[in-house]
Amino acid sequence: MLDQHLLSIILFAPFVGAVILIFVNGERLTVVRSIAAVSSGVSFAASLYLLYAFRFAPGSAQFQFLEQYEWSTALGISFFLGVDGISVPLVLASSVLLFAGVFISWHIEDRAREFYIFLLILASATIGVYVSLDLFFLYFFYEMSVLPMYMLLGVWGSHTKGYLEMKDTAKRDSVGFIFNFASNSKEYAAMKLTLFLSAGAVVALLGILLTYVGTGLHTFNLIELQGHEQQFTPWMRSAIWILLFFGFASIAPLWPMHSWSPVGHAAAPAAVSMLHAGVLMKLGHFSILRVAYWLFPQTTKEWAFLIAILCVFSIIYGGLVAFFQRDTKYVIGYSSSSHMGYIFLGMAAMNMISLGGAVLYMFAHALATGMLFAMAGFVYDQTHTRDIPSLGGLGRKMPFIMGAFVVALMASVGLPGTVNFIGELMILAGSWEQYPVQTVIAVVGIAITLAYLMRMFMGLFLGEMDPKWAHVRDAKWSDRLPLLIMIVGSLYFGLFPTQFINVISAGVQPLLEQIHQAGAVASAGGGG
Amino acid sequence: MLSVVLIPLLPLLAVLINGIFGRKYLKESSHYFAVGSVAISFVLSVSLLVRMLSGASPITVNLYSWIFGGGFDVHIGFLIDPLSSVMLMVVTGVGLLIHIYSIGYMHGDPGYYRFFTYLNLFMVSMLLLVMGDNYLVLFIGWEGVGLCSYLLIAFWFEKESATKAGTKAFVVNRIGDAGFLIAIFLIAEQFGTLNYVEVFERAHELSTSMATAIALCLFVGAVGKSAQLPLYTWLPDAMEGPTPVSALIHAATMVTAGVYMVVRNHAIYDLAPIAMTVVAVTGGATAIFAATIGLVQTDIKRVLAYSTVSQLGYMFLGCGVGAYAAAIFHLVTHAFFKALLFLGSGSVIHALGGEQDIRKMGGLKAEIPVTAATFLIGTIAIAGLPPLAGFWSKDEILGMAFKGGHEALWLVGMSGAFLTSFYMFRLFYLTFAGTTRMTPEVAHHVHESPAAMTVPLMILAGLSLLGGLLLGFPPEGGWLHAFLAPVVSGEGAEAHHGFGAVDVALMAGSVLIALAGWWTAYTMYVRKPELAPSWAARFRGAYTLLLNKYWVDELYDALFVEPSKRLGLAWGWFDRVVIDGIVNGVGRMTAGGAWLSTWIEKHVLYAFLNVIGYGNHLGAALFRRLQTGYVHHYAVILLVGLFLMVTFFVWWQGGGVGSLLVQR
Question: CB B649 to CB A178 under 8 A?
Answer without folding.
Answer: no
